[in-house]
Amino acid sequence: MSLRIYGLQAEQLAEPLGVDRPRPRLSWKLDSDRRGAAQSAYRITAALRRDDLGEPGRLVWDSGRRESGDGLLVAWDGPVLQSATRYHWRVEAWDETGAPAEPAQSWFETALLHRADWAAAWIGRDPAELPPVDPPGGDDVAGADLVPPPLHLRRSFELDRPPVRARLYATARGIYEPRLNGARVGDRELAPGWTEYHRRLQYQTYDVTGHLRPGPNVLAAVVADGWWSGYVGFDPRRAARHYGDDPAFLAQLVVEHADGSRQVVATDAAWTEGPGAIAGADLLMGQIVDARRHVPGWDEPGPADGFRPVAVLDAEPGPLVAEPDHPVRVTEQLPAAAVQCRAPGRYIADFGQNLVGRVRLTLRGAPAGQRVTVRHAEMLAGGELYTANLRRAAATDVYVAAGDPVEVFEPRFTTHGFRYAEIDGHPGDVVAQVLHNDTPFTGRFECSDPVTNRLYDNIRWGQRGNFVAVPTDCPQRDERLGWLADAQIFAPTAGRNADIAAFFARWMRDVVDGQDDGGAFRDVAPVVTLDREAAPAWGDAGVIIPWYLWRTYGDRQALEHAYPAMKAWIAHVRRHNPDLRWRRRAGSTYGDWLQIGADTPREVLATAYFARSTAIVADVAAVLGHAAEAAEHRALHTAIRQAFVDSYVSADGTVAGETQTAYLLALGFGLLPEDLVAAAAEHLAADIERRGHRLTTGFVGVPLLGPVLTGHGRPDLAYALLHQDAFPSWGYSIRHGATTIWERWDGWTEHDGFQADAMNSFNHYSLGSIGDWLFGRVAGIDQAPGSVAYRELLLRPTPGGRLTWARAEQDTARGRVACGWAVTDDRITVTATVPPGSTAVLELPTADPASVREDDRPVDTQPGVLRAGPSPSGLTVGLTSGRYTFTAAAPLRETS
Ligand code: RAM
After folding, report:
1. ∠ CA(512), CA(517), CA(519), 5° rounding?
2. Residue 137's pLDDT band (boundaries 50, 70, 90)?
3. Is 80 exceeded by the pLDDT of residue 237?
4. Helix (H) or strand (E) holding 638
5. Distance CA 859, CA 561 (A)
6. What does residue 449 show for φ and ψ, rounded to 5 degrees?
7. 133: burial class by Cβ within 10 Å (0-12, 13-18, 19+)?
8. What is the DSSP string of 93-128?
9. Contact partners, residue 158, CB within 8 Å, separation at least 6
10. Do residues 106 and 8 lie in contact, with contact meaning Cβ atoms separated by under 8 Å?
11. Does ligand 1 have an atom closer than 6 angstroms to the CB of 490?
12. What is the pLDDT of residues 460-498, one digit of tens each?
């Protein structure tokens, strides 16, 4: 095989149904089993082909042959796109010898591109038409009296023939589930997700062709309060209603017939609203269903009892945007690992995994009116649910049975973070449904040590549980906010596991929108009620994440979009701190949040971040071609670095505070003069050794431990921390049953039991940011400093600790990258995969550089190998694309 083209994406999504960018960017990946394979040129052609109408293709864009090695976010250069139209596109590519690859094709469909395309108005409950809210069965559920019943909306219409194509465009102020003729439409959960609703509200596009039929049809929806008017929002002064008082719905169904005629059914005064089984639903509080109140056939053609006209709330659709990233979906169903009867009719199910989603309950033979209550918890205390850490989140679902032989309760307008569920009232079969933004998980790390593998799984579960609409701090208590530091600290790990390009680019719009006129970002995005200037390392996410998206995915648009905000952030910090030590206007200045047994001075941490962000802005300016601004930020960076050294660094290399994090920041952000680096690294090592190989780092320090120790010649210490299982350590939590990453090192300890209930999440990903090092140094996948989207790989497998092998792979924006090693007796085997068009520098650890072989041949005689030469750890090998397996004398055992 020469070149294989795969993984075609438009706007970083595979075959998206609703693209609203005027010049969508097209991407593809490459694969080959031939060494040195690379793309030398490509050509994109795009056609309008109404295959559903049996029309032949009509070519609308031909890029012509372009000499380029990349297939990375190539902007559409064809004619202006039409609304609601499917474009088929095809890539041809030629390899470095000029031979053509098998062409590949894909499509994207445009959404509604113009205001005039919308005929829909916002509709909702008419307060005058309905009796006051009285949720049945909700009286003894905390908060239920405050959670209004969702809207049940319907509209019937006639079709005189089956359509050839039909699309539903829909969104809500709240969260909604669309229905057609009695069936759920699509598999999205919690749509439209959460954005700064007053700036941007996402709508979803559904292919509903197969749902329609000639004759009467009914389009319907259930709309709950969600983030719009629900409890999420973290403001003890106000229970809910951060964006508005009541949910509302907006939708437009566009039906097309073979003769080109169209029929549009949009939300308007002809819709009706009525009662339904769902008596109340809220993301934090839970969902209450009284199945006796189900109105049979409410979402099907025919009469619907109790339905009355809706109120038209707003004729203006508002700031609608097409959903730009992977929606939330149920991605896994987990049966209970164990069910324990606690009392007659009361059971506790253990799913064996702390997860985020809901319990699906199947009841058999429950009498009419039987109430079943499902409560959730991450931990048990004395055999019962530990719910104190949920704070005001009731996380309680209630089902009142209708009396049918089999009834299924699946609360789709709430989510909970839990491992355990208590079912009280009637026995039933339970399954946990796991949900999160469905970012493709294409990366994986694996090694010989089961505890490290459990740590890695815990990290993955933390990512799944907290990538729900926005990157959240935690999924269980009454918080669930998009905290900026948590996100920037964890993003490099998340991007190893999954393709998070579109997810973060979308969330970054909210981060940027949160910035105030003075240039200060907010601690959270969307801002909801935490409207205060961001702290060091929190606000810096506004600089770090776009840069990360550029480096990892080559997303230049993310940089361009954030660049003015990045500059304003630096200007804000500088304006208020003319001596370049960041002490004023540092927001809530959280410092090294949840550090343990250490206290890193806040201004040391702040100033280090000020330096780092300034350096990034200089790099961004250079990438975007703003030379003067690049120079200006370089000079500022030099000055901040100087101020850092003058103020906090002593002649013997000690850094003020003398904590692990102080050293990690100074070393990891390159703030020290060359002649103090070794001394500072020794101070860091000495602190870890003095503590018997224990860490003291909080959120800010923890991601730097592995990289800095490994980068300064002490991988042995990084491994010692990885393998530590005495308190505090990752191993300690795993030894005590952790299946996710805990918010705090001391979330639960043998000596003190649970930490303060007020802040004790067992699913917080920040301390899982070590995952980046597992990929980057343990298995060895990294990219060179100036490289974009893994074009120049730096492969540095680092055997150590008690591991005998480790490997990782990632499906990067260019193609598959893998690296791994295995040590047996006195030999090491190193494997590497470099995608077409990329090159790699492999640092192959061996005691004897002359011993390196591939297929029994000296390494520098092998195809694809560009050069080989000794390096401190063994042999450095330059590689072109391809798959490699080298063997060599094992590296000497490190002494620790
Ligand atoms: C907590 C959040 C988050 C952290 C902030 C400072 O409430 O859970 O993780 O970033 O505080």
Report:
1. 60
2. very low
3. no
4. helix 627-648
5. 45
6. -100, 120
7. middle
8. EEETTSPBPPPEEEEEEB---SGGG----EEE--GG
9. 215, 216, 217
10. yes
11. no
12. 999 999 999 999 999 999 999 999 999 999 999 999 999
Average pLDDT estimate for 368-372 = 98
Structure tokens at 263: 């029929």
**In testing the pocket of ligand 1, which one of 390, 391, 477, 479 has its CB within 8 Å of the most ligand atoms?**
479
Separation of alpha carbons 248 and 151, rounded Å: 8
DSSP letter at 524 equals B
Which residue among 528, 590, 593 has the greatest number of ligand 1 atoms within 8 angstroms of its CB, and so is best to mutate?
Answer: 593
Sorted by sequence, the CB contacts under 8 Å of residue 171 that are 6+ apart come out as 191, 192, 201, 202, 203, 204, 249, 250, 251, 320
Q: What is the pLDDT of residues 801-851, one digit of tens each?
A: 999 999 999 999 999 999 999 999 999 999 999 999 999 999 999 999 999
pLDDT at 140 (0 to 100): 45
The neighbour count for residue 444, using CB atoms within 10 Å, is 17
- Distances 851 to 796, 799, 882, 886, 888 between C-alpha atoms, Å: 18, 17, 22, 10, 5
Residue 338 to residue 68: CA distance in whole angstroms: 56
Q: What is the Å distance from ligand 1's center to 482 Cα?
A: 9
Based on the number of CB atoms within 10 Å of its own CB, is 239 exposed (0-12), middle (13-18) or buried (19 or more)? Answer: middle
Residue-wise DSSP of 131-149: PPP--TT-TTSTTGGGSPP
Mean pLDDT across the chain: 95
Q: Are 465 and 518 in contact (CB under 8 A)?
A: no
529: CA distance to ligand 1 center in Å? 14
Three-state secondary structure along 457-488? Answer: HHHHHHHHHHEECEECCCCCCCCCCCEHHHHH
Q: Does the pLDDT of residue 599 top 60, yes or no?
A: yes
Identify any residues that bridge with 698 across adjacent strands, giving them in sequence order: none
**CA angle at 70 for the pair 30 and 882, rounded to the nearest 5°:** 40
Q: State pTM to two decimals.
A: 0.96
Q: Cβ(485) to ligand 1 under 6 A?
A: yes
Whats the size of the chain, residue-wise?
896
For residue range 7-20, list pLDDT tens digits in order.
Answer: 999 999 999 999 99
Tens digits of per-residue pLDDT, 292-316?
999 999 999 999 999 999 999 999 9
Q: 381: which 2 tokens? A: 């205390």
Q: How far is CA 774 from CA 146, 445, 497, 711, 800, in A?
A: 46, 7, 11, 14, 12
* Residue 145 burial class via C-beta count within 10 angstroms: exposed 0-12, middle 13-18, buried 19 and up: middle
CA distance 885 to 588: 51
Contact 467, 415 (CB under 8 A): no
